[in-house]
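Lab notebook, bench 4. Still working through the backlog of constructs that have no structural model yet. Next entry is a single chain of 738 residues. Request: give me the structure tokens for it.
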Amino acid sequence: MKKILSASFLLIFFSQTSFSQQWGGKFEQLGNTLPSPNSYRTGSGAPGVNYWQQRADYNIEVEINDNTQVLTGNETITYYNQSPDQLRYLWVQLDQNVRAKGNLNDQTGNSAIQDSVPAKFFESQLGELDYDGGYKITKVADSQGKALPHTINRTMMRIDLPKPLDPGQQVSFTIEWSYNMYDRMQISGRGGYEYFPEDGNYAYTCTQWFPRMAVYDDYEGWQNKQFIGRGEFALVFGNYEVEITVPADHIVAATGELQNAKQVLSKTQIERFEKARKTFDAPVFIVTQQEAEKNEKSRSKKKSTWKFKATNVRDFAFTSSRKYIWDAQAVKLPTTTPLAMSFYPKEGNPLWADESTKAIKNTLEVYSARTFDYPYPVAISVHAANQGMEYPMICFNYGRPRNGKVTRRLVDGMVSVIVHEVGHNYFPMIVNSDERQWTWMDEGLNTFLERETKLERYPDLNHLWGSPKGMLPYMKMEKSKIRPIMTNSEQVKQFGYNAYGKPSAALTLLRETVMGPELFDKAFKEYATRWMFKHPKPADFFRTMEDASGMDLDWFWRGWFYTVDHVDVALDEVKWFKMRKETPDVENKGKNVQQGDLSSSTAKGEKASDFGAGPEPFSLTDTEARYYGEFKNRVNDKAIAAKFDDKNFYQLKFKNEGGLVSPLIIEFTFTDGSKQLEHIPAEIWRYNEKEVTKVFAFEKQVSNIMLDPNEKTADTNPEDNVFPRQMVKSRFDEFKSK
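Model written out:
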């Protein structure tokens, strides 16, 4: 009997599984779409009992030649194999090779000639810049100085080990290199330099400046996907000790803490720096504008070496210039007290002195409240023209007044980029997702928190970007021009909308409409704290958000992240009903005799366009015995009828025109001018994904109805969201004025 039952069960199971796979409904569980849970990554979205990750420590010496703009460096990398696997070779990222001759981006990038093309863009589009880019690798050797066999494959380098690296072992090796830094005005990139012809100075922003270890993990082994230029970085945590040699009149800012302040700062600067550590209300100037302007006229022939140390970071970046103004302010968080610092040339003022360090402080406070207290000792914002890029503890940001003029738009852009780039310390610098594969996991989450920070600390700035309403132009696009969020970075179309705006809008909808702020905030914080200093994947985020909230969100991830469906729900039909006034007729065996008939003038089958025809009548009859089944007790039919006597019933039919299932937010306006909002979860579509109806009962009469009145669901066609239909134009005008 047990065998028969087991066989029957398997038959039913496989039949159901097959049906589920064939059906592919919008409320179907993601199932095999996500990787199977294991001892490394659990079904709850948390790291498993056997979770592991690699580590790489760096000792680096680097020097910038201010005359030739050549960066020269040598590094010793100590790589720790904390995986259960034996490794016979290692992969190192050579991201500067993205600008080497014959690079993959130039070879595969689409190009076309237009009638009129600015010369600057035409030259770079053809890859004909007079620039010798890429690393010049001069040495790869083991700890004894013996050359190691290595193979360079564009932006990746394979190093063959003399013997396999077993689990629990470590290996040290040395790389020496140099490369020509590039003018960011001519060559678009995350690092390089800006030249100031007025005073003949340079501001160096050094990023992806050293060969870095690729990630080896439980998910895909080596992440050695080529760097083409868009998909950013997959990196390993480790400790850094870095010595940076520059002209003695330069000011340097970097990832980590300065170790030799007495050797590179004046006594006055050290005193100001120590004061800043204890000052919470306003920035302290360590280098004033007057001092910076004086310094930019100097040309020291001496050199200084700045020493920095950083613990448990995934990368290292720095900046150097004699032009920098430097201010700093302490930020008091519940468990940490980081120092917010800004470095900027005079060209950034008066804006930067007023806004930069304040924006860092606001970011650390809001992000920490939503995730975890900022664990690093410093957070730095550096002014760099046309730039917005992030690294551990330091970021580079645009926002430059023209002729000293500061506009509202400039403040909005500058504050937004600083909040965004400082916010990247949380995602992906600490919650260390794979940017090379999934841009949305850091950019989308970070854009969401950027907007939340602006809403809380900058209520007068623009909050449209990253909101559901802000995504309407994108969601309306022809489907061939867009791709799902779950698309690799290098294949994404409409990159800003896809990887930044749409994920942020999705999370905003999830927080404000689907889950509610309390549940969402707890789940989001759980994800952040679970994956601090670890390597999460998309499934870890999806599963944690469900696990920590107690909500089944597979329908949401499926629709918003795996498809290009959009929200377009039509309020297709509205019917108004009222009960007839009735008395039972005993002789007619329960049939009802009508006392009054509220008839509708709307022709049969014709949809009413307003409430002018009045309500349609309906009857509540006595419940027949057959409806009670085995129950002996009965409901009071007359009491039920009395309960609904004189109430107004409104039957609403909704059609899903866009394909993306959505919660329904319905605003009823009554004849006395009062309003009432009804929130219907998206699960209303679970039985019919195309069309649903819902009845609402009110004491008052309704004058008009509007779906998604505050534009929270990204509905692309508000014209079919209102009833009566003639109110469309007036409501459009009202919302446009807002």
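Notes after review: The first strand starts at residue 55 and ends at 65. Residues 484 and 563 are 5 Å apart (CA to CA). Flag for follow-up if needed.
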